[in-house]
Write a structure and sequence with these properties.
This protein has two domains: about 5-185 and about 300-385, Zn peptidases (Aminopeptidase), CATH 3.40.630; about 185-295, Alpha-Beta Plaits (2-Layer Sandwich), CATH 3.30.70. About 35% of the residues lie in helices and about 25% in strands. It has ten helices and 16 strands. Helix 6 (about 210-225) runs antiparallel to helix 7 (about 265-285) and helix 8 (about 305-320) packs across helix 10. It binds zinc ion (2 copies). The site of one zinc ion (ZN) has 4 residues, from loops.
Length: about 400
């Protein structure tokens, strides 16, 4: 199929849902309104089961195909949360909540998957079961992880799981994807340096924590440049450097540094944590300062499995045409918590073109409603090709 007629007919209706979500953004796990609407719609479509409360505010719908001879269940996932950004789009359906907006297009993801759920509930033109997954807290709250911990994969017997995200800059009607590591792991660290403050004119009586912090900052640059295979990827960025002093003549007592570490493989991730820990500890020792490091591992590397990636490529080509699917997309140093679902089950993640819009997380961003028929058709096509009648 390219776009199904029925899905073209639903374009206006799905757009209305999307803009309603856009006007009413909710952060992290506080997606109470969105979750309630998702639950009500899934119930009204006639889903065989609608379950709430996984991952606190997550919602799951189960749709049975016309037969179940192959006893296979696939999961399709969308995210529902917005961001703490003040919208500047001036659209008629702009956020009604000051300082919150759907700047990552999760409003569109939720609406497109709801559209697919409606279509699949009406037609049931597949053999097996589909689980539609609506998760909260993608933006830093690891909602996917909480849903998995609440039994998402095992309780619903999901054997493969798929995700989709819009991509600004990629033309509407196009898709891109790659097999293997696609999005980076995102870890973060905080360094607290305790020195000995004093008069800036009598440095010999102090242990200056700003000097220690500066040496740590410079030393960290060598982890990417000297310890990492040049053909592999690592980003170490120090994003905050603060002292408690705001004067010209005081050497402060303490300095705090914060930063993020992005990697595309487990070995580089482990190596980076080791080297960063050693450099920070030993630099503190060299200067006689007391240094404490807090190193938090965040979202893991998101790895698309080969077979499921090929299923997604096939479905995307069926919807958009061969020439509109890039199966060798560039890797991304941003992170995505769908990686937790891909640690539990084989699966893959694809991007759908959002056209020439502002970038993700920009206050002028808006999800492009013209991509709705492509995203919704893609979910339906993937379901029908993965769950064919025997
Ligand atoms: Zn985002
Ligand atoms: Zn996003």
């Amino acid at each position: 199929m390219p776009i199904k007629n029925r899905i073209s007919e639903m374009h206006g209706e799905i757009t209305v849902w999307r803009r309603d979500f856009h006007e009413n953004p909710e952060l992290l796990y506080d997606t109470h309104r969105t979750s309630k609407i998702v639950k009500e719609k899934l119930t009204s479509f006639g889903c065989d089961q609608v379950i709430t409360g996984l991952g606190r505010t997550g919602v799951v719908g189960v749709i049975h195909g016309r037969s179940n001879s192959n006893r296979k269940t696939i999961g399709l996932r969308a995210d529902m949360d917005a961001l703490p950004i003040k919208e500047i789009t001036n659209l008629e359906y702009s956020s009604k909540k000051d300082g919150m907006m759907h700047a990552c297009g999760h409003d569109g993801h939720t609406a497109m998957l709801l559209g697919a759920a409606k279509y699949l509930s009406e037609t049931r033109n597949f053999d097996g079961k589909v689980v539609v997954i609506f998760q909260p807290a993608e933006e830093g709250g690891a909602g996917a992880k909480e849903m998995c911990e609440d039994g998402l994969m095992s309780d619903f017997d999901i054997s493969e799981v798929y995700g989709m995200h819009n991509a600004p800059g990629l033309p509407v009607g196009q898709f891109n994807i790659r097999s293997g590591a696609f999005f980076a792991a995102a870890d973060q660290f905080t360094v607290n340096i305790q020195g000995k403050g004093g008069h800036a004119a009598r440095p010999q009586e102090t242990i200056d924590p700003t000097i220690v912090g500066a040496h740590i900052l410079i030393a960290l640059q060598s982890v990417a440049s000297r310890n990492t295979d040049p053909l592999k990827s690592l980003v170490v960025s120090v994003t905050s450097f603060r002292t408690e002093s705001d004067s010209y003549n005081v050497i402060p007592q303490t300095v705090q540094l914060k930063g993020t570490v992005r990697t595309l493989s487990k070995d580089v991730r482990d190596m980076a944590q080791d080297k960063i820990t050693q450099l920070i500890k030993n630099t503190g020792l060299a200067f006689g300062a007391n240094v404490e490091l807090d190193y938090d591992r965040g979202y893991p590397v998101m790895i698309n499995s080969d077979l499921e990636t090929s299923h997604m490529i096939k479905a995307a080509k069926n919807v958009a045409g061969d020439e509109n699917v890039d199966d060798n997309a560039s890797q991304v140093m941003g992170a995505e918590d769908f990686s937790y679902m891909l640690e539990e089950r084989p699966g893959a993640y694809i991007r759908v073109g959002n056209g020439n819009t502002a970038s993700l997380h920009h206050p002028n961003y808006d999800f492009n409603d013209e991509s709705i028929p492509f995203g919704t058709s893609f979910w339906v096509e993937l379901t029908e090709t993965r769950l064919p009648f025997l």
